[in-house]
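Worked example 4.2. Below are the chains of a multi-component assembly; read each line carefully before continuing.
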Amino acid sequence: DAGVTQSPTHLIKTRGQQVTLRCSPKSGHDTVSWYQQALGQGPQFIFQYYEEEERQRGNFPDRFSGHQFPNYSSELNVNALLLGDSALYLCASSSGPRAYEQYFGPGTRLTVT
Amino acid sequence: GIQVEQSPPDLILQEGANSTRRCNFSDSVNNLQWFHQNPWGQLINLFYIPSGTKQNGRLSATTVATERYSLLYISSSQTTDSGVYFCAVEQRETSGSRLTFGEGTQLTVNP
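Applying the procedure described above to all two chains together yields the following structure tokens:
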């Protein structure tokens, strides 16, 4: 049973650049949520995708955008990177947008210099 | 928005000890999950527990939804239990849902 996968594992970018992170959901899941985790803090909800549409959005600027593909995989895009965007980005999948349990991938660690 | 508070922020134990950590939340929630985050950042599902009590080996969890708190209990701690334990509550809205996390309890188990 394939779990949630994310790529890349690590990424180093320069301030002002753009980045794309990728997520494949757990087998049988159709909903993907993205979270940002700064060092020493709990994860913060960015947005949720279901049926290729953004269903919920947290308190993040428009520089953060996403996409979901017909195979349920998802991308997180961040434009005009700031130093404060350095964090662990976690993807979670579930069976439906109002689901009972979310399962997380291993994360992508983004460093902005 | 909903507030989630976890206590204590840190626990340092000797191998074999028992411990409890608490999660308080400020509003009604649809569901609650406990996670263990290992040193590599992976969040591992421990319990999905909107109410009641569940046990899985040395771990058990209890959620009292009417009083807005949950407890996670670990018995006979092992060094591999070290890491951060997060409580997350789910607010389910018309179009979707989101998890709101607490700040976590950092557990260190010494041999």
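Take a moment to check your reading of the output against the notes. The two ends of chain A are 37 Å apart (CA to CA). The mean pLDDT of chain A is 95.
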